[in-house]
Amino acid sequence: MSTNGVEIFTPGTSKSPAAPAHLAPVALADNKLELLAPAKNADYGIEAIRHGADAVYIGAPAFGARHTAGNSIADIARLCEFAHRYHAQVFVTVNTILFDSELEDARKLIWEVYEAGADAIIVQDLGLLELDLPPIALHASTQMDNRLPEKVSFLEHVGFSQVVLARELSLSQIRAVAAQTQTRLEFFIHGALCVAFSGQCYISEAYTDNRSANRGECSQQCRMPGNLKTRQGDTIATNEHMLSLKDNNQTENLEALIDAGIRSFKIEGRLKDLSYVKNVTAHYRQQLDAIMARRPEFESASHGRCSYSFVPDPDKSFNRGKTDYFVHDRKPEIADFRTPKYLGIEVGKVTKIAKDHIVVDSSTEFHNGDGLGFFARNFEKARLSDDKLTGFRINRAEGNVLYLKTIPQDLRVGVTLYRNHDQEFETLLAKESAERLVTVDFLLAETATGLSLTAADRHGHSVTVAAEFEKQLAKDLERNRDGLNKNLGKLGNTDFCLGDINLGDAAGVFAPASVINNLRRDAVEALTKARIEGYQRPTPWQRDDSVRYPQKSMTYLANVANQKAKDFFTRHGVVSIRDAYEVRPVKGDAPLMITKHCIRYSYNMCPKEVPGIKAEPLEMELGGKQFKLVFDCHKCEMLVVG
Asked: Tens of pLDDT along 527-561?
């Protein structure tokens, strides 16, 4: 199709039927809910699992969509070993598009990842499916632009057991996808939002020395400030972060997402710090646990219950404000045009400024070392920069009197302050802050020559150990029972917490404490071994090579960068395939970003909302570059053309 003279590739023509959010749950056989957390490295992944993740995703040594977040095979193996103790899983990202010269290295890498114990690889480039891969589960990256039911159904048929859906989908659109597939559906529930449909942005590649978002090197020009004008030159906005979205937060929508068919709940943040991973993972663990407590038809995808030394609060970790994006369809204020930085929580207004301190009207308890921020009143010096938000640290807090090393020059009485660093909270998170334990039940029984102890978790694993000794009848039955319970309950530094103890007729047998302690230790060791040996990695789904791809032709927006990918799509019915932008850049005007975010809507200029307004293109200057904004109102999308 063509809009205002610019050729636009249409990924698909079907439109998901509208459906109210209160419909009955989608009927899926899969009842396991998976909390999926980011792992910058193995240590971060281990902490994510301790804090409640059912699975973590981590970058491979190369070919990951976060270029600076690669990890060694040895570290991936170490993470897998820890995760599998709780039957949690490890997904490894190999999710960039690949050039022909990289395919063999990628194939070898995937074998190494498999041999390290990984449970799945997350991929974008379908050329990989033409290679000799190990029997490892495949997950379709959101970089594949997974919006339409036909696309997801196709991915299921060619072997993907899990598909990461586009962040822009509404509940009704998710339902439409779930109705046409049995693959597990994964959805981002927290963290940074890419303003473009994932895989559909080429601004970084085009304007920053070949730093391709599809190859893990996005320069994030969308977070820069810019100017907006009409085609006639009238100014609409100056020095605004027009493409910088707030951060995703689906806390209030988790149950609705479950009912729509989502089974994997993904937290963004492989470049975030450890306190973010701990805090946000713990928050969503508690939210999902509360839902499962009300709805026993669902269960956690891994084992163990978590306890914390802090109260999880995602507002206290890095975020740009929160939005639930398009889950309940389009709504205002999904972006904050003032700043792309972490603004923090509003804590009060300045009432007095002295030489070395300020006074704040606030009910907040401040701490030494807290970080505060405010918006400077004089924006002129901050023109076309990110300096509108100014920050400072508290040296010493005495109630609402805050002593500072230096008083910021632009600080004024009446200015609103935001706290973006809670020192006390961060201190808690810097320590050991969570414990994850699997419940174990004990059954003590009398044997002909002594006692046996059966240890069982609540996931089907059970072991029995025995001890021989000279039995005696207990003289004080109640005291003997208390002693047995006490010694069996000493689980110390193990992965287990005590459930039920059944002493049965063994309650009348006196056994030295050393015998019971040895029985307990042997049983716990045997159960740990049984649980590890009982863990099974997911297996690949069967492939149907006869299935047809939903389209007959592909433009550069399909991101086909190698011959193997062309072979794959040709085998599945595609007759015309254009090279990826990274291989053959488009000459002349072309969409360099396709996004659901609409600047016309944000500035109250939407033709569907304001009578008499036309969807004429707008001109945007961003980072010194000029772009044309073209509006496809039929699909409710915006194209950034350059």
From this structure: 999 999 999 999 998 899 999 999 999 999 999 99
From first CA to last CA, the distance across the chain in angstroms is 18
pLDDT reading at 220 higher than 90? no
User: Torsion over CA of 478, 480, 482 and 488, rounded to 10 degrees?
Assistant: -150
3-state class of 152 per DSSP?
helix
Distance of alpha carbon 585 from alpha carbon 562, whole angstroms: 15
Interacting residues of 532 by C-beta distance below 8 A, sequence separation 6+: 84, 85
* Distance between CA atoms of residues 2 and 10, nearest Å: 10
Locate 55 and state its tokens: 């699975």
Residue pair 161/89 in contact (Cβ under 8 Å)? The answer is: no
Whose tokens are 């495949």? That residue is 138
Distance of alpha carbon 464 from alpha carbon 455, whole angstroms: 6
Q: How far is Cα 603 from Cα 332, in angstroms, rounded to an integer?
A: 10
- Residues 258, 259, 262, 266: what is their CA dihedral angle, to the nearest 10 degrees? -30
- Among 33, 46, 214, 158, CA closest to 542: 158
Give the span between the Cα atoms of 454 and 465, in whole angstroms. Answer: 7
Residue 374: CB atoms within 10 A of its CB come to: 21
**CA 45 to chain CA mean position, Å:** 12
Query: Domains of the chain (ranges plus CATH)?
Result: 31-198+239-323 (3.20.20.70), 345-430 (2.40.10), 440-534 (no CATH)
Tokens 């005590």 sit on residue: 498
Average pLDDT of the chain, as a whole number = 92
Spatial CA neighbour of 560 closest among 97, 213, 196:
97
Q: At what angle do helices 103-115 and 73-85 cross, to 10 degrees?
A: 40
Q: What is the 3-state secondary structure (H, E, C) of 512-554?
A: CHHHHHHHHHHHHHHHHHHHHHHCCCCCCCCCCCCCCCCCCEE
Pick the closest to residue 19 from 149, 174, 164 (CA basis). Answer: 174
pLDDT in tens, 256-274: 999 999 999 999 999 999 9
Q: Which residues contact 395 (CB under 8 A, 6 or more apart)?
A: 368, 403, 404, 405
> Which residue in this structure is represented by tokens 């190369």?
62
Alpha helices in 188-340, H assignment, sequence order: 203-207, 254-260, 274-294
Residues in the chain: 642
187 beta partners = 265
In terms of DSSP bridges, do strands 32-39 and 6-7 run parallel, antiparallel, or are they unpaired? unpaired
* 346 token code pair: 């509003």
